[in-house]
TrEMBL record:
Chain residue ranges for the region called Disordered: 1-24
Family: Belongs to the UPF0047 family.
Transmembrane segments: none
Protein name: YjbQ family protein
InterPro entries (UniProt xref): UPF0047_YjbQ-like, YjbQ-like_sf
């Protein structure tokens, strides 16, 4: 299943746990993969607490130092590409009886390093 997420300006974090949960087939046991088919966004599992989400956005937006990146000559977003490599574009989650089997404080978070954009998220 694929769904879309509208993201905020710059580097932003969006909780997509409900959408991912809704894509899990009824009664399924095993795993699901959540994949973001973009080169300037990533997906992580962490707590969906507003202050932590702001910290994640700040961390992701600042983890790549300012430099004269070659790709910036094209569209000035090399930092977003490099940050998304560290975040990763996919996570695999356990599923029990058709529900995500994640920890109490765990959520699935889309981290967009080059917003605002409309991002696709695949759940398979």
């Amino acid at each position: 299943m694929r769904f879309e997420v509208e993201t905020g300006e710059g580097t932003s974090v969006t909780d997509i746990t409900d959408e991912v949960s809704g894509a899990v087939p009824t009664g399924r046991n095993g795993t699901v993969s959540v994949f973001v088919p973009h080169t300037t966004a990533g997906v992580v599992v962490n707590e969906a607490e507003p202050r932590l989400e702001a910290d994640i956005a700040r961390f992701a937006g600042g983890m790549v130092p300012d430099a004269e990146w070659h790709h910036d000559e094209i569209d000035d977003n090399a930092r977003a590409h490099l940050a998304s490599m560290v975040l990763g574009r996919d996570v695999t989650l356990p599923v029990m009886d058709g529900a995500l089997d994640i920890g109490r404080y765990q959520s699935v978070l889309l981290v967009d390093c080059d917003g605002p954009r409309v991002r696709n998220v695949d759940v398979v």
